[in-house]
Amino acid sequence: MRVVELTSGVFHLQGGVNMGLVVQDGKGLLIDAGLDKDAARRALRVVEGMDVTLEAVFLTHAHADHFGGAYLLQRRLGIPAYAPPLEAAMMEHPIMEPVFLYGGAAPIQALRHKFTLAKPCQVDHVVGSGPLTIGPFQVDVVPLPGHAPNQVGVAVGDVLFCADAVFPTETLQKHKVIFCADMDDALETLERLPGMPYAHFAPGHGPTYEVGEEIADICRANRERLEAIREEIYAATESPRETGDLVQHVADRFDLQLTTPTAYYLTRTTVLAALTSLEGDGKVKAIVKDNRLMWERQT
Ligand SMILES: [Zn+2]
Hints:
Arc Repressor Mutant, subunit A, six-stranded mixed beta sheet, 15 strands, 10 helices, 2 domains, alpha/beta, binds zinc ion, 36% helix, globular
């Protein structure tokens, strides 16, 4: 785990999944908890190495790779967790993540692994947006919806821990169809992010971006990818198509090999988010014909 000090006492813990650490008066606030107990232990080693007592953990959104380690922190240290509404409910009932992916039904075994089904944690404080005091820490909770329905960022001074609002170039290259629950919200968040009043943007994956060109460029690349996905789907509805056809079409167009049910269902969620966005623009409509749900172009 690479420890990058962004401003005095504000650290970006960079690994497979990043975390944030704010230190003040010998106390620490952790932002996100990693995928599992191993990730949480790695963070704890950093905290202990600084001779700091962890006060609380703030969880930005209910994806297993960001809150899966929280139960270990709570079991070991008894610290409170903070999270935004809805996301908090999913952290306390993590089965909802694979249930959502699987369309509301009891999920298949393939969706019940630690990447989609975390251990539950207890959210002691469900928090809205705006200023928030946690022990000695003054932070700002910043709504960043889209990637997850109610995702938030945490601002400390001029650092914004911006969760999965923006993905690094490597993720765009590797995963291509980036995960998104609400495409309109995600695009709007990406539009706003570079203009927010912070100097450093510390995301949940990849490096820190500085204010100005760095954050603007990566937000633009993410936006262009989401728009390209939506455009490909619209183009494919020249004749009415089923959702599964559109998943295959998008994967083919972006040269993506889906090899597991999890990868398939994650991609399908982004495709469905794009369809909702297109429906909102009056461009496609869901119709049922011959007992098949088809996406039909409207304009
Ligand atoms: Zn996420």
